[in-house]
């Protein structure tokens, strides 16, 4: 079958290739891929940024989001059947949605919201699960709390704004001048135009910050938190707790060293820091399905590409201009 494969780490490391059809285990479903979305995580994995944490061995098929149709079910699968339309973020070390087919553990999938097209559904799993795990599992956001979501016009930011509002938070976000009305329409109560204003000079007293931009933004974000507030980063540096989540306790000293500066800074300010790499979770995805079905949440797409142009889609993401998710379709 056709797939897009990481042959070596680096910006030029992805190639189109013919690969064997997936093997379907007893707890797996085989999915005919109808659409897949491009995430910053794809480009980071391609570039080798997580190679010490996620032990992929090139060549491997890339892709973390999928919407499609089940064509085969494993012998132990009871909740799904051939013909079901599903969506998923396959678990780490079993990714590979940039392909014609993928075998996915049934615990990682959910029925696709009937209100969404395959293209829209493919844009959802990774960002929706990330936002949910950040706001619900990690931060325990409660009504009336103040949440800052960086890059509100992006794929994760646009989803996190909606999730935080659903939880009853007052939400601020950063965005460019052209995107101010866009993020307000998603539910942002306060918008800081990063082209003219430093968010750290105008915001204060926040309970939670979700950062997806990097070190400079993260360090400033610590200063807008109230005492005991929590800064969550999805781009790192990984903290020692992440070693336990990976089941690799020997990595704890390494991750402690990598995150020492930001953790020390947070401690001095009386706030907290946490690194989040979302986990596949079909049960949570079912919860999110209901929110997409009733219109509480809606996907935000920037542009679609044909499957054959997957590498071009990844290059477009690298340019940093996307307003929402980038999707490839078959």
Verbal overview:
The chain is globular, with a radius of gyration of 19 Å. The chain folds into two domains: 2-124 and 299-329, Alpha-Beta Complex (Quinone Oxidoreductase, Chain A, domain 1); 126-275, Rossmann fold (3-Layer(aba) Sandwich), CATH 3.40.50.720. The chain is built from twelve helices and 16 strands. The two termini are 13 Å apart. The chain has helices spanning 40-47, 118-122, 125-138, 155-166, 180-186, 199-202, 215-222, 240-246, 252-258, 260-269, 282-293, 310-318; strands at residues 2-6, 14-18, 28-38, 60-61, 66-73, 85-88, 101-105, 109-111, 146-149, 170-175, 190-193, 206-211, 225-233, 272-275, 301-306, 325-329.
Terminal CA distance reads: 13 Å
- CATH class of the largest domain, named Alpha Beta
Q: What's the SSE pattern?
A: EEEHEEEEEHHEHEHEHEHEHHHEHEHE
Largest sheet: 7 strands, mixed
Short description:
This protein has 330 residues and is α/β, with parallel strands linked by helices. The chain has twelve helices and 16 strands. It folds into two domains: 154 residues, Medium-chain alcohol dehydrogenases, catalytic domain (Quinone Oxidoreductase, Chain A, domain 1, Alpha-Beta Complex); 150 residues, Rossmann fold, CATH 3.40.50.
């Amino acid at each position: 079958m056709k797939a897009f494969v990481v042959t070596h780490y680096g910006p030029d490391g992805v190639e189109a290739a013919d690969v064997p059809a997936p093997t379907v285990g007893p707890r797996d479903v085989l999915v005919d891929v109808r659409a897949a979305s491009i995430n910053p995580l794809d480009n980071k994995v391609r570039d080798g940024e997580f190679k010490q944490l996620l032990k992929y061995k090139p060549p491997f098929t890339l892709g973390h989001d999928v919407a499609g149709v089940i064509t085969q079910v494993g012998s132990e699968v009871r909740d799904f059947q051939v013909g079901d339309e599903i969506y998923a973020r396959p678990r780490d070390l079993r990714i590979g949605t940039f392909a014609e087919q993928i075998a996915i553990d049934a615990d990682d999938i959910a029925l696709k919201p009937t209100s969404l097209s395959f293209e829209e559904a493919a844009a959802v799993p990774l960002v929706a699960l990330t936002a949910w795990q950040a706001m619900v599992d990690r931060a325990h956001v409660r009504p009336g709390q103040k949440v800052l979501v960086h890059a509100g016009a992006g794929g994760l930011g646009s989803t996190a704004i909606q999730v935080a509002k659903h939880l009853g938070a007052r939400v601020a976000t950063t965005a460019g001048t052209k995107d101010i009305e866009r993020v307000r329409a998603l539910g942002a109560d306060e918008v800081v135009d990063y082209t003219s204003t430093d968010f750290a000079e105008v915001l204060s007293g926040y309970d939670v910050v979700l950062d997806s931009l990097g070190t400079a933004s993260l360090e400033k974000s610590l200063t807008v938190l109230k005492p005991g507030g929590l800064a969550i980063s999805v781009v790192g540096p990984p903290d020692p707790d992440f070693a336990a989540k990976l089941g690799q306790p020997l990595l704890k000293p390494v991750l402690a060293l990598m995150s020492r500066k930001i953790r020390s800074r947070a401690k001095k300010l009386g706030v907290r820091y946490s690194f989040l790499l979302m986990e596949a979770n079909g049960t949570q995805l079912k919860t999110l399905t209901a929110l997409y079905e009733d219109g509480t949440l809606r996907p935000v797409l920037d542009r679609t590409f044909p499957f054959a142009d997957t590498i071009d889609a990844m290059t477009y993401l690298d340019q940093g201009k996307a307003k929402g998710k980038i999707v490839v379709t078959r």
